[in-house]
Design goal:
By secondary structure, this protein is mainly alpha-helical. It is built from one helix and no strands. The longest helix has about 70 residues.
């Protein structure tokens, strides 16, 4: 190979290495964001189930009040 061709090949290889480094940084950033989203989803899921539990408790109490006041229909 001539020096000019070798120089062009090296230039292209450096450009490829730079592109790969950029892709690595981007993938790492995406991984961090995905991890954070997973943690947020876990928090939201816990909050939903906690809210459901509270609503279930309120329904039980309301049923008990209706029975005491004889407001509920007989089943």
């Amino acid at each position: 190979m001539t020096a000019e061709i070798e120089s062009l090949v090296l230039e292209q290889l450096r450009a490829i290495r730079a592109d790969i480094a950029d892709l690595k940084r981007e993938v790492t950033g995406n991984s961090v964001q995905l991890s954070a989203m997973g943690q947020q989803l876990a928090g939201l899921t816990a909050a939903v189930y906690a809210g459901k539990s509270d609503i279930d408790e309120i329904k039980r109490r309301l049923d008990r009040v209706e029975r005491r006041l004889e407001l509920s229909e007989s089943h």
